[in-house]
Amino acid sequence: MRIAVRKQAQFISCFIVVFSCAIENPPLPKKSIQSGVASALIDTILLQAKSTAPRTLRLPRPVYSVGGMKDDANDEFIHTNGFLNAIPLNDGGVLVLDWAKLRLFDSGGRQVRVIGRKGQGPNEFLYLTAACQTRGDTLVVFDQNNFRISILTGKGELVRQFSAGGKMLHSYCFDDGTFIVKRSGPREASMPRAELIRMSSTGSTVARLGSFPEVQYLDGLHVPVSIVASGSTLYVGDSRAREILAYNLQGNLVRVFQLHEPFESLAAHGGNNIRRSIPVSTATARTELPKFMPTLRDMFADGQGNLWIQDYRPNYEPGYWTRYSLSSGKAQRIIYEAKMISGPEIIEIKGNRVLTRRRDGDGAAHFEITRWSSTP
After folding, report:
1. Residues 218, 285 contacting (CB under 8 angstroms)
2. Which of 41, 115, 324, 332 would bridge 102 by S-S if both were Cys, CB 3.0 to 4.6 A apart?
3. What pTM value is reported for the model?
4. pLDDT per residue as tens digits for the range 279-296
5. Measured in whole angstroms, how far is the alpha carbon of residue 137 from the centre of its chain?
């Protein structure tokens, strides 16, 4: 259902996960968006409650898999790499970020190229942590330890490298050739903020999109903020709220997607146990936990008019996903069919392709492409 309302301010909220916890919802504060003299009305779409969404999406056996243990050590991923990751490519292949190397696989799962080596020179990397693909199959890759961005063709040929000027994550590419870097911003009322900058593939600043909420650790509780660039839209999901905000390429708010879920008490999920289970090194000392569960763990926009939101689970437990139509707000839930020792962990969704990661019994990582299907 679609209605026109004034933009709602951020508010503390929660997303129902597995258990039912009926508590009274506090009122939702509102504020208007000023555009010159008049206040702008923002289009809002109410997303269907996931508790009423049918489980009609299935993840069958993978189409292909890359990774695992190899006879030749040169062909094997560094499985102990904490940032071992991958992205699905427009041609059906996969790009794997393997420490100081990029491994390019075709649509059949065959490794066709290994790019780079350890170092600080041209076409060299120290610690690859993020990548995305933009217009013309251009690859944008972030090297955290060199603090550098590399631009490559879809075939893996280096075009240029330049200073990042900020941090980059997966799903940070728009389809016009630009991408996002994130810089630390000033805190507001003890809440961390990040400045988002839109950059071109030449390294120049195109636009400053504004200041946005940042991930927070509250006495060990991970409070995520998911930021996704898709097409010409920036989606921001703050897990302290029950809404997804959509912005255009200039950083103007254009739409609000409101989660239709009740608040859920953190205490009902063992708030004290959450506090004890997280290592002290990752906690913000002596910070009180919020009263309500965060609303989401992660989020993707698949490029086909859908937004995917992962259930929040305390203590980093695997969560399920719900797909919402961006036009109607209708929802569908995933049914997992593949029997895996660990996983599947969804890494990214592109069209009808789902990239997952799992680890087998010997700890080796596998990246797998699955095509989700719908059942009546």
Report:
1. no
2. 115
3. 0.85
4. 444 434 445 566 778 889
5. 20
